[in-house]
Write a structure and sequence with these properties.
The complex is a heterodimer of chains A (486) and B (495). Chain A is an all-alpha fold. Chain A has a domain of 209 residues. Chain A contains 18 helices and 2 strands. In chain A, a hairpin with a 2-residue loop joins strand 1 and strand 2. Chain B has 21 helices and 2 strands. In chain B, strands 1-2 form a two-stranded antiparallel sheet. In chain B, helix 2 runs parallel beside helix 4, helix 3 packs parallel to helix 14 and helix 7 packs parallel to helix 10. The chains are: A mainly alpha (486), B mainly alpha (495). At the A-B interface, strand 1, helix 5 and helix 6 of A face helix 17, helix 18 and helix 21 of B.
Amino acid sequence: MNADSLIALALVIPFAGALLIPLARAVPNLRETVTLTTAGALFATVVMLLQAVWNGARPSLDLVQVTPGLEIAFRIEPLGMLFATIASTLWIINSIYSIGYMRGNNEPRQTSFYVCFAIALFATIGIAFSANLFTLFLFYELLSVSTYPLVAHKGNEAAKRGARVYLLMLIGASLVFFLPAIVWTYVLTGTLDFVPGGILQGHIGPVATGLLLALFAFGIGKAAVMPLHYWLPIAMVAPTPVSALLHAVAVVKAGVFTVSKVIFYIFGLDFLTETGASEWLIILSSFGLLMASLVAIQKDNLKARLAYSTVSQLAYVVLAAALASSTAMLGAGLHIAMHAAGKITLFFCAGAIYTATKKTEVSQLDGLGWRMPVTMFAFFLGALSVIGVPPLGGIWSKWHIMQGAYEAEYIFVVAALMISTLLNIGYLLPPVIRAFLLPPKDGYEGGIKEAPLPSVLALSITALFCVLLFFNAGAVATLLNGMFVY
Amino acid sequence: MIEAQLPALQIVLPLIGATLCAIIDRPRIAYVIALITSVLMPVIAASLLVQVLSEGSISYAMGGWAPPIGIEYRIDVANAFVLLLLSVIAALIMPYAARSVAAEIPDNKQAWFYSMYLLCLAGLLGITITGDAFNAFVFLEISSLSTYVMIAMGKDRRALLAAFQYLVMGTIGATFYVVGVGLLYTMTGTLNFADIAMRINELDIASSRPVLAALAFITVGLGLKVALFPLHAWLPNAYAGAPSVTTAFLAATATKVAVYLLLRFFYTIFGFEVVFELHPVGEVLLVLSIAGMFAASLVAIFQEDIKRMLAWSSVAQIGYITLGVSLANATGLTGGLVHLFNHAMIKGGLFFAVGGIALMAGGVKISDLAGIGRRMPLTMAAFVIAGLSLVGVPGTVGFVSKWYLVLGAFEAGLWWVAFLILITSLMAVVYLGRFVEIAYFREPAGGAATATEPPLSMLVPTWILVIACVAFGINAELTAGTAGLAAEVLIEGLR
């Protein structure tokens, strides 16, 4: 099977999964087997594609022309390959975790849960492999729509309200800013294709470039650029596996991936450096990452704290892309991978704590380390990775982003990154310290009692990823360096 | 030689069918007649379109009297496609109608209903196919009168009031139209579209006062039929009160035909220059369209009855169509035209789904339909997909419309219009989302608790339209391609 048809397979597999899951709804074990098989098959397909891209191939597939100028087409470049690899890997682990969580908490409507998940993955793969802005937009919107029922899953007032905000902000931003940006790009250049080096050079003046970049940056609401981050903490009402999907596997990653892709393949790094059109975004995201960290410190609710941490970490990626140098762009790609592994671990832990003890607040975690040692140790590793401490993966992306900022002579960015690291410590380590160093408040003496095995297994694997990524970051960098060869 | 007579058959068959239904007056037989006639329609329309695409415009002299003395049926790409649209909707609605009509209309009136439906169809097809201004008026009245009857057959007594309201407004509209046609006749001495256009040009009277008065009368008169804001007042009541089948049929066809006729006058008869360059028709239309899009979308958000909500949404969507026309460039007009087809599919699909809900759950008030998504998963899934299409999510026909409209706005240098278009799409998310949320995330209660899926005869036509919404959103060659051709034909004019 050649690489081009593998693209079709990678799209068909999750879609077929979404169709098959409801057929098996009567037998939960069979239904979950379908999910896991689909996830496994997708992973295998993506790995085969990864091999091809690693060897320098750029598989492509032209599906259909909607109307002149709008084509559904796919072309795999390194950044998208990385994103697809992360998403398909984490889907397997997330599915294992979901089984433990959904059953452990007796969640209703599990069939539609798994169906929406599969559709979300279908959309994610489409985003990752898209060859032009239209294809990307198509799957981007599908991802918003398919995750809406997941956010509303619990069906209570808070969940419905959260889902409403989620859908309206994402679809709203994409309709009112992202789509006009796409149309404007098309009017200027007559094409929507992603071309290494960008397509805008010579078609637009510097001020308008800044404006167009603003339309993209705010239109891609999934990247949660301040002040459009509001939906992300609100969407915390969703079950934890969904939060993991939102924060690590697909949604916000799709956002920052799209921002990076637009900056690299539509604007072009050189063009942005020449015009200085992205300077405002550098300032805004530096400010944003500090603000979000400051808010995170004040949150007692663990998931809310992690949500603001995500807002902050996403700003890292946007910042790195806006710096528009190859070093920083490499940092952006690395950070997508590193943050995914770190944040999914943290969310899995938060969910495991909830499943085992129904605790949701940081202040309730005293002494929990002796009751759930595996979970809390995994939390510790995830936290260290997000902070950027060796030997965990997070150090490498921060390293590159800082180096990019130095090279571009943005000293205040370097300062912001350093302060942010301190703040990261301030909000991610207290849960661990409370869990291991303080005596339990509720006088619990029952010995070790972890969440169900699938959950513990999943969070251990992702914690292990954080470690592995430290030693294997070179491979990710090698893959990403393929972007700059054209 | 039957092929040469196709233009006549397209109109005569439903006319004969309507008469037969009324004479025989048996529900079953009337239904079969209506069904057979409706199913034949797309066959004729499709062969006409094929003929037009391969050999160019068709001119058919009714009764053998050559134009401009006799009535000419003239078919080019623009109306061939509208004919096909009307026919396809007719062919889908008849299989759908059986159960819904049986449930909503008393036995002794059903034959009349089918008779009126066929008359209305004949009228709409006639307006579209004819090349004669007065003949168009006759067909306009045929379709309007039969529509009043079909609306008045609604179960609710308010349907009578709605029908009366539409009767008054519709009559004013038709009168304005015929006054305009009269003025044109005085100035040019002919009623044939092509002939009027030629004489206006030859005599150089495009800017003369009577011709301009005619333009004004016809624009306002047809504006009423189009339900162009602020002439829309009849539409929400009529759609909400009418039987489900009537609503679905009207929503997908009636206003579209009026738009088509308006375009015919703008482009073929008065000409692009007179309408859009010498006089500010485009600007006026632009402002009214945008006002309609906002006002109607806003009202739709606060509706408690789904049919009424979708009716207000129709007023807003008509705004998109006229907005495309008002942009006065090929891309914008293509957008308007393609939305004419696309909206027919979308609203048809939505009203078909709602008709199924009305039949099985016994009502269409949003608050009575909690949890309906779990009782009628296929119907609601159809509603959601058609709804996404209404919003303009990529991969659906709604996006194709919006793409051309926004692109047209940018080309016209009206980038702010592009934003306004997209903001109103967001309002569609709000009013549809309200219902979808209640339908899926509340426990089933009331009429919804015992509802089941409607029969296949209703489900299949619904899904055909919904699948069309997606299929033509993924490959718009047929719809957008033909709309583009039609836009070219219109802009070039008949000369």
